Amino acid sequence: MRWRCSVCGEEHVGLPHDWAFEKPRYWEGPRGPDDRLTDDLCVWTDDAGDRSYFIRGLLTIPVVDGEDDFRYGLWSSLSEASFERVLELWDDPRRTQEPPYFGWLASSPPGYPDTRGLAVDVVTASLELRPELVLHDADHPLAREQRDGITLDRVREIAEANLH
To answer: Is residue 123 part of a domain?
Structure first.
């Protein structure tokens, strides 16, 4: 599929099936001795010395007129207890039996109103997969899109917003 970007005017081939964010929106680099950022997990200490815990997961949006879903690789906050439980079961196949962990979305995809305050369930999956992020029902475009799906034209709009 070829398409012309309405922002830069360039022609692109194919639409993305996923878009990933490398870090939670709050990460500003390590500040405390235990701060770390990996591809999947993050611990961050703020200016007041309070620690925050994050996990990266996949927020899947059905594409109603396409062959594949669209996925965002986004970050969610976790409580310290939930984060410790995730670490405890990281390499354990029993983690798929865990109930969802509660979190707050900690990524801001371009093209949407502010996502701060969007509640999310972090559903752990098999060892080979990142957790699934399922937004709580909310009157927010991202939550509606996850629930109702999007079109290929909307995927193109998302690509344009994220490329520029």
So the answer is: yes
Predicted TM-score (pTM) of the model is 0.90
In a domain, 8, yes or no: no
* Domain range for 124: 17-150
For β-strands 36-37 and 18-20, DSSP reports them as unpaired
37-66, pLDDT tens digit by residue? Answer: 999 999 999 989 999 999 999 999 999 998
Residues with Cβ within 8 Å of 129's Cβ and at least 6 positions away in sequence, in order, are 58
> In the structure encoding, which two tokens stand for residue 75, read together?
């970050």
The answer to the question of residue 159 being in a domain is no
For residues 123 and 48, what is the distance between their CA atoms, to the nearest angstrom? 30
**Strand, helix or coil for residue 57:** strand
